[in-house]
Amino acid sequence: MTAMPVPVLARWRARAARQGGAVLTAALVLAALALADLVTGPSGMSPGAVWQAALAGPEGLDRAAATIFWQIRLPQAVMGGIVGASLGLAGLLMQTILANPLASPFTLGFSAAAGFGAALAILSVRSSPCRCRAG
């Protein structure tokens, strides 16, 4: 087996270091945004109260803060991350399958089909009689 030439190896190492730095930066930005998502909200909780609720667990002393954090904010943040990762993976798969780095949902007509499905759902729900009774 032959060794790689030194300039090629040096360029590869420099590129790998840049990519590693970019991945680390993206991970730090993602962590900061997730933390900001958990801390902000209409409840008016201070970041310290959110931190205390996170450390105390779902059965913490401040039941309102624990409920807001563990049953509302945290599940929404986790689900947002899962949905975002799934959409990114779907885009990657579409670009890989079509061998086109510019592939989009419009390429296969997914957007038109989604619009048709949404219109169909709106029309079917709107035309169906309401089975709820007041009082």
Give a quick precis of the structure:
The protein has 135 residues and is mainly alpha-helical. It is built from five helices and no strands.
Radius of gyration: 24 Å
Number of strands: 0
**Computed structural class:** mainly alpha
Order of helices and strands: HHHHH
- Number of DSSP helical runs: 5
Instruction: Estimate percent helicity.
Output: over 70%
Mean pLDDT: 86
* Largest sheet, strands/sense/barrel: none
Tertiary shape: flat
Unreliable spans are none
Strand fraction band?
under 5%
**N/C terminus separation:** 83 Å
Task: Describe the protein's topology.
Blueprint (H helix, E strand, L loop, with lengths): L5 H34 L7 H10 L6 H36 L6 H4 L1 H18 L8
Helix pairs in contact: 1-3, 2-3
